Amino acid sequence: MSRLLICLLLFFSSASVFAVEVTNLYQDTLKVADKSRDARLAASREALLNVLVKVSGDTSADQNPTAKERTKDISDYMLKFEYDEKADGTLNLVVKFEANKINALIKDLNLPLWGTRRPLVAIWLAIEDNWRRELVTQESYPQLEQLIYDKTGRRGLPVVVPLLDLEDRAIVGIPEVWGNFSDPVERASSRYSAERSITARMYKQQDSETWVLDWRFTNDELFESNRLVGDKQQIVADMVDSLAGGLALEYAIDPTMIGQLATATFHLKGITNFVDIEFAKRRLESLSVVTQAQIAVRTPDSVQFVVNHTGSMNDFRKALELDSAFKAYQNPRDFYQVVNNDELEYQWQGL
């Protein structure tokens, strides 16, 4: 996802946005030497493998022997292709695939399925070089910042590297990121409508040119649980892979559940007119796990939907967590909030 798209998203969205709709999940862009058929076929086959990694969240999906075999029938999956020629003479091939066919292939390969609505992650990265510490921004470390956007784009993970302008600096500085002080980092990240935040610190090993990168989610306890050692750019790329892989494990549908259909009763409170009901129905059906939503019962201030979905009830809940239009209902009269795993009661937040 481009920085321009992230900025537009932040401009037009409220602070309650929890996820980003990844619009280019089923396409890939690769550099090609020319417009020959051989070059196009080779790049298209590589693109298919890259898309499998993006859609499944599995870093090893492109190494799957069956997946490689399926690339021989590349035309079965392609929607269209086009060339993008840059001013410097670089030639790129943009390949778009049919989502339904890719999802079916994901199922055949027994891979997880990660929907298009994914959490926006704020990445706060501090670097110590020659005893000087700085935070990565477009101005301080433009190549590393671009690497983060390029790599996360390859993984279909929406991220934002904070601007670190006066508004950010009023809340967060290098010590807060270096020490992973969660509260100020999360407050600063809320400006970007980030669902998750990570802090990372990178430094050289003593008496060595080898770099160390420690990173963690702000709600984790230990930096050292995610430690990477090696070349500066490589360990940043490895961090993105680890980050994307971890989120995929959290949000993707288990491969054993992809083909299983289930029905759930979904209670939505705080909805009073037909326009919002229709919006809510369409919003439900836009979730990657939902195949159909039908109105069953309507009262003056609530609606009950019967929802057909794939995966487990937990997969359904995780999809709902990433949508700001729905919020788990909490009865203000209950002193203790008890979650009933068999019920889905939510409050309509509007669009």
Structure characterization notes:
The chain is α+β, with helices and mostly antiparallel strands. The chain folds into 3 domains: 3-20 and 116-251, Rossmann fold (3-Layer(aba) Sandwich), CATH 3.40.50; 27-108, no CATH class; 261-348, Alpha-Beta Plaits (2-Layer Sandwich). It has helices spanning 3-12, 37-56, 65-70, 99-108, 142-154, 166-169, 174-178, 182-190, 232-251, 274-286, 313-321, and strands spanning 19-21, 27-31, 78-85, 91-97, 117-119, 121-129, 132-135, 159-160, 196-204, 211-217, 227-230, 261-269, 290-299, 302-310, 326-328, 344-348. The strands form 4 sheets. Strands 6, 7, 8, 9, 10 and 11 form a 6-stranded mixed beta sheet that branches. Strands 13-14-12-16-15 form a 5-stranded mixed beta sheet, covered by helices on one side. It has a 3-stranded antiparallel beta sheet with strand order 2-4-3. Strand 6 and strand 7 form a beta hairpin.
